[in-house]
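Service request form, structural biology core

Requester: graduate student, group of Dr. S.
Request type: structure prediction, single chain
Budget code: on file
Notes: please return the result as structure tokens.

Sequence provided:
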Amino acid sequence: MSTSLQGILNMSQQSIANNQAALNVVSNNISNMNTTGYSKQNVSFSSLPAYGSYNYCSSVGSLQIGHGAQLEAINRNRAQWLDNYFREQYTEYGYYGQIGSMTNNIESIMNNELSSTGLQQKLSDFFSASQSLTTDPTNNAYRIAFAEAAEDVANMLNDMSSKLTYMREQAVGTIGDPDSFSKSQIKMSVDELNNKLAQLAEINTEISKSTAGGSSNNDLLDKRDVLLDEISQMMPLTITSNTNGTVNVHLGNTVLVQGGEQKAQLNAVQTTDENNPVAIQLVDMEGNVRKQDVSDRLTSGSIKAILDSGADGELSYKSVLDELDRIAKAFAQEVNNIQTGTADGTIPYCIDENGQLTQATEPIFVAEGGGDFTAANIKINDAILKDPKLIATARGDANMDPNAVGNTSNLERFNQLETLKIPDLSNSAVPGAGQTLSSFITGLVADIGSKIQTINEASEAQQAVATQAEEQRNSYTGVDLNQELSDLIKFQRSYEASARVFNTAAELMEIITQLGA
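Core staff response, request fulfilled:
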């Protein structure tokens, strides 16, 4: 292109178009400054190749004259290392955010029903009823109060077990109940993850088509990055990039999404193991199971937290249920042993309808459905409720005087149970030493409270780290209004200057045209 007014017109026209595009980008940035996931965009210009022009007025025969500028690209402000760091922290945040909901549920039960105003109080009422009955073992009102107090303890244990079991069912379903599992949080979360992986593959396909057309679609890239953030909250992931702008997602060494193709997905299935009721299968897109359980690869994230809440661990619905079962079993067995036990060679006696002592054979508690006592199945014996005279108040040998209805030897054993160290309630730190019901419950409350506090502290710390990582990323990718206003003025001035050059060149051409007329 030779040096001419036409060349000047072309360059200034190109500059006007460039600055108009830049102003459009600034306007788009300002419009989206509050849009979630939006990355600030900026224009990138490059000089057009210079051309040679012969200069008759110079000893230098040829000069290289600039040919103007071209709009090279509209880029996003994005740093891969910031994304990676944020997603690593977001995975941990996803874990603690999810596990925190479980600990809140347990803490609520602990504070309301396991503390001194709940189960402790019911046990205290039971021993108070026993003390009252000791003052007059023939008093029917006292016997009724004793039976009702025993029923209250059982009902409280039933209620706590029911609530924890329901929460566990919501998280991971109930073993042997496919319907509950299909509605469980773990099943729906894994299905949601697979849906997001499918969406990622679709977006990758669109990005690939856009890149093939010559430029990347920044809106698609933003949409993809938001999706990757959401996936990272659910599971730990490794992301690699392809030359066409698409990404791959790995779980450990397994590729889940490769560009525009989803290679595999996860599948939550029930097991028959109460300690680990859910397995996470790795399945290819034809439905073939490639790995029976990849739960160990889910080292963090919300899905890991749901698995932990339902499995056997230091603190989970299962672990607290197990402790409640220990209380129910120990209490029921000790009470029943006092009520009907003869292992020490003595016999427990109750008062029959004739007002005489007869051997007690009806237990206070029964396990509904059979088997060992648990917090879920402990029940008051209906026979005791219907006829409280069956409560064993006296104890002696086979030659016990049937008229000795004032004997309270067996009731004294009920009273002593309050301070008895029960071997089945041994502290893990001192195996076999045993604990009283009250001390065991107090220790359980303290232990659960300590673990919850540790989790809450870790959650708060991780939230602070994740928030800091997000703010650090946003400071780079987010729209800075001050910067946009500065760019607005810069491109506006450049636009005006280019327009003035264009007008000047046009006026000169008009003058030349008139001179030649």
